Amino acid sequence: MLPTSGLLVIDKPQGLTSFQCVARIRRILGGVRVGHCGTLDPMAQGILLILFGTATRLQEQFLSLEKQYWFRARWGIMTDTGDREGKEVARFAYAHISEADLSEAIINFRGDQLQTPPMYSALKYKGKHYYEWARKGIEIPRIPRPVRIESFDLLHSEGEFWEGRVVCSRGTYIRTLAEDVAKKFQSGAHLDALIRERVGPFRREDALTWETIESATQEFLLNHVQDPLHHHARLV
To answer: Looking at 13-87, which runs of residues are DSSP E strands?
Structure first.
């Protein structure tokens, strides 16, 4: 008998919102209740956990899982969204930033800290998403939130681009992290690419590709469902 609730691990492509991914899964499954466990920006790609049916009751536990990201940032330009899809708002010098200085600086971002969430985010203020206020040009109060950076490694740095890998807690914004690193050098930066490689024990290489999902039948998708209760028992 095919499952009526469960967990799907998908690899979200660039260009789609997390909501669009959820909507596609819902259509394939015939309108059952579906929810994702952690928004990915349209520019980003990688692991997106999908719960459906009664498994959506476990969403909070899966939202709390540790995340791992690979990213590429670009020095010298800040945008209103913090990534390459946003509007340029300022330019800064960056030639003075050496790879050795950058490697040393990111050490200070490891551990517990407070991070101010970006204006363009899915968080809510007075019932509206931050990005809804931002699109109206209205600045709202943003309270710094506690996050934890388990690891932060510099992978490559050349010219105006640098790459890193971060393992972090729920609620950490990599866009903000790149901007905060740049501020240490009186400069600016924005994300040029972002991949969520892992969420808890779930890895991108084991996820269903979007190409597979686009052509999937309901039976095929349900045959790839994982038991969320099995993972939930290991998480609590």
So the answer is: 34-36, 45-52, 67-75, 77-79
To the query of whether residue 192 is one of the catalytic residues in this protein, the response is no
What lies within 8 Å, CB to CB, of 119 at 6+ separation is: 80, 130, 131, 133, 134, 139, 140, 142
H-state helical runs in the chain: 18-29, 59-63, 99-107, 130-135, 174-183, 210-214, 218-222, 228-235
- Per residue of the chain (236 residues), give pLDDT as tens: 567 889 999 999 999 999 999 999 999 998 899 999 999 999 999 999 999 999 999 999 999 999 999 999 999 999 999 999 999 999 999 999 999 999 999 999 999 999 998 877 777 878 887 778 878 888 888 889 999 999 999 999 999 999 999 999 999 999 999 999 999 999 999 999 999 999 999 999 999 999 999 999 999 999 999 988 766 545 54
Enter the tokens of residue 149: 């950076």
Q: Check: pTM over 0.90? Answer yes or no.
A: yes
Q: Which CATH class is domain 67-198?
A: alpha beta
* Catalytic-role residue among 11, 41, 83, 192: 41
Cα separation of 48 and 28, whole Å? Answer: 17
Residue 27 token pair = 């259509």
In contact, 34 and 25? CB cutoff 8 Å: yes
In the CATH scheme, what is the homologous superfamily, with its name and number, of domain 6-64+201-235? Pseudouridine synthase (3.30.2350.10)
